[in-house]
Amino acid sequence: MNEASYDIELGTLIMKYKDDILYNLSITDKRKLENNEKNKFTDKVYKEIQEYMKGQRKTFDIKYKFEGTEFQKKVWKVLETIPYGKVLTYLEVAKIINNRKAVRAVGGACHRNPIWLIVPCHRVVGSNGKLTGYAGGLDMKQKLLEIENKNKDVPPMLKKRKI
Asked: Which residue ranges does the record assign to the Methylated-DNA-[protein]-cysteine S-methyltransferase DNA binding domain (predicted)?
């Protein structure tokens, strides 16, 4: 597995990849890579994340592969379908996978999402609408949701009003 790091406004973005397939993303403010293996693929991932952070990109064109349990993969597949600027609750995700009693397990799968920005677990919230646990921290979850809320497609006449 190769690793590359880039500085972004949230901290140092660390990518783990192999053969132009992304396996893991993380952000840290402490770790620098000794062997930073940047290439065209990692530059593309970085560029798309930068575009997302600026509100210029709503979907990603990155090849990635999930490594996890079958249950986790099932949850992560649901996360892929949540549109930009929308949120689902953990219960709604549990219902989609036909296991409404698995709300906590859905939360655990979201927390272990290895490609958390591109596969948007930040779009899953508690049943009361409150932000709950997020692998990147609640501040990051809030920031990502704010970026999406600010840049989601709203007709120009409605942008002047508070929604």
From this structure: 70-149
Kindly name the residue from 102, 106, 121, 144 that is annotated as catalytic.
Answer: 121
Q: How much is the pTM?
A: 0.83
Catalytic, 121? Answer: yes
pLDDT in tens, 17-45: 999 999 999 887 766 777 789 999 999 99
Helix (H) or strand (E) holding 96: helix 90-96
Domains of the chain by range and CATH?
A: 2-54 (no CATH), 70-150 (1.10.10.10)
142 contacts: CB under 8 Å, gap ≥ 6: 131
Q: Tally helices (H) and strands (E) across the chain.
A: 6, 5
